[in-house]
Amino acid sequence: MITAIVLIDTDPARIPEIAAEVAAIQGVSEVYSVTGEVDLVAMVRVREHEKLADVIADRLSKVDGVLRTQTYIAFRAYSDHDLEEAFDLGLGD
Asked: What are the sequence ranges of the domains in the chain?
């Protein structure tokens, strides 16, 4: 699975509507409204590298109100959550 983190600048008056439209795109697993220099962060997960262009360039960036995107492709995931799932034996606490 290929994961891309997409930072999205939007029309500030339409953040909730844009977020909902982006979240409805196949391949987008999550959309977060955030504080800081961008308005939304979307997580895109696809099976093939070529699908990133379909999801991000052909669909997400063309949503009305999306002004600019920056895409970061993840190489590896490092998190306690991932490690806990990997070593979970299914035993109750």
From this structure: 2-87
CB-side neighbour CA atoms (13 Å) of 33: 11
Q: pLDDT 10s per residue in the chain (93 long)?
A: 899 999 999 999 999 999 999 999 999 999 999 999 999 999 999 999 999 999 999 999 999 999 999 999 999 888 766 555 555 555 555
Which residues are CB-contacts of 73 (< 8 A; sequence separation ≥ 6)? 2, 3, 4, 52
- The CATH code of domain 2-87 reads 3.30.70.920
Q: Which residues contact 38 (CB under 8 A, 6 or more apart)?
A: 7, 8, 9, 70
